[in-house]
Specification:
single chain, 318 residues, alpha/beta, four-stranded parallel beta sheet, 13 helices, 47% helix, globular
Length: 318
């Protein structure tokens, strides 16, 4: 290989990538999708002083030995740079994930996925993704309770995870909430299109160390979003810049519910926001643009490695 690229999470892949790169004597690029262990600590999944200390040491070891670190947002860059020696700050690069805007496109809302759930022309509010401790999905259940009087609104929670059993118990008795198992990847465009409104609820603090990829899928599908995230973070800034929905503070039940109710009551506004999000993502996160950014980075690293090798060879010969 010319370069080794390893992705985190899981954090241990970084160590594996570094070992392979070292053995092959090529540059190592560490791609951080979510900053671990920060996300696990914030979500309460990683506990205990020893376990947290070991995870931080592995994070620091890998970040410092990478020739370049790529992250998805300015927030994640700030997080990583703060943990590195000052001299290494320049090796952290922001390169977003791409979204295939040819595959994920605005589609017909009344599709086969809706038909399987017995949903017709109702307004569908959807959460699609992992049902874990990072998401404030209790907000979704509370919003469903608030709108339970409206027979034309259905909440769909699509996915699986450790927090799903408790969430299903909380939703017991709510006729307007449907739980659906994670669908095959091939159905992603259809699932995304079936919603009239998507929600992205993250627990307080997590939006600074995680950028959910589902946001870009939602924008590409031409659907609006209500995001419950830390203000000023990448998700909130993207939603605002794209004009694609409403961002509210994390775990703010009243603001979250009001935002959903507002778009339920104004479907034309919701559709305009969805169209605006689609235009935004077409310009910003195409596969070609992201691939070019990585290619430029790889060429820079390979060139620097070759120059260092040539310099070392001349020194030895002299």
């Amino acid at each position: 290989p010319d370069v080794v690229l390893a992705m985190s999470p899981p954090l241990t892949l970084g160590l594996a990538g570094w070992l392979v790169a070292k053995a092959r004597r090529v540059p190592f690029v560490f791609n951080i999708q979510d900053v671990f262990p920060d996300v696990a600590i914030e979500a309460g999944v990683l506990k205990g002083r020893r376990a947290i200390g070991a995870a931080h040491r592995l994070e620091r070891f890998t970040d410092e030995r990478a020739d370049a670190v790529t992250v998805l947002s300015d927030d994640l860059r700030d997080n990583v740079v703060a943990k590195l020696p000052v001299a290494q700050a320049g090796k952290v690069h922001v390169i977003p994930n791409f979204i295939d805007t040819e595959w994920i496109r605005p589609g017909e809302r009344r599709n086969a996925y809706r038909a399987e759930l017995g949903i017709g022309d109702e307004f569908v509010v959807m959460y699609a993704g992992n049902i874990g401790f990072s998401q404030s999905l209790d907000l979704v259940i509370a919003a469903a309770q608030h709108l339970a009087h409206d027979p034309d609104v259905v909440f769909v929670i699509n996915g699986g995870g450790s927090a799903r059993p408790a969430l299903e118990r909380a939703a017991a008795g709510l006729a307007n909430v449907r739980f659906v198992d994670m669908q095959p990847r091939a159905r992603l465009p259809e699932v995304a299109a079936a919603a009239d409104l998507h929600v992205v609820p993250l627990r307080a603090g997590l939006a600074r160390s995680s950028v959910p990829s589902k946001l870009y899928t939602i924008l590409a599908a031409g659907r609006p979003v209500v995001a419950s995230v830390d203000p000023g973070t990448e998700v909130a800034r993207t939603v605002d810049a794209a004009g694609a929905g409403i961002a509210v503070a994390p775990e703010d039940l009243e603001a979250f519910t009001k935002a959903i109710a507002r778009l339920v009551a104004a479907p034309d506004d919701a559709r305009r926001m969805g169209a605006s999000g689609r235009r935004f993502v077409e310009r910003w996160a195409s596969p070609a643009a992201v691939a070019e950014a990585y290619e430029d980075l790889f060429e820079e690293l390979v060139g620097a490695a070759d120059a260092a090798s040539d310099s070392g060879g001349r020194g030895a010969a002299g």
